[in-house]
Design a protein that fits this description.
The chain is mainly α. It has helices spanning 11-65, 91-98. The chain has a domain at 11-75.
Length: 106
């Protein structure tokens, strides 16, 4: 014989329990993501420092030997004070070239 237990549950209580369970589930996940992001940031800074040190040592070595390097030495940080100027073609010249060169219309 089956025994039935009658349980009455308010829909708002059920919704509140679902929201609380979701929040409890998201807290550990967000803390793991923050920890992983901190680790990634630390490793990126370490990589940049190592690359800067390698570039400095390579520059020092080429200055001691006096021989030009086969690989170009590019600084990691450029001078940020000067804005880079892009030379854009003159739009009138471009229109003239695309239209066939004549400025008069038949």
């Amino acid at each position: 014989m089956l025994v039935f237990i009658e349980i009455t549950l308010n829909i708002f209580v059920l919704a509140g329990m679902v929201v609380c369970a979701a929040l409890i589930g998201f807290i550990p996940r967000s803390s793991r993501l923050r920890k992983a992001q901190r680790t990634i940031d630390r490793l990126e800074k370490e990589m940049l420092a190592n690359h800067a040190e390698i570039l400095a040592l390579q520059k020092e070595m080429t200055s001691k030997t006096g021989l030009p390097s086969r690989t170009p030495i590019v600084p990691i940080r450029e001078n940020g004070n000067e804005p880079k100027k892009e030379t854009l073609p003159d739009p009138a010249v471009r229109k003239k070239m695309l239209s066939g060169g004549s400025s008069t219309k038949p």
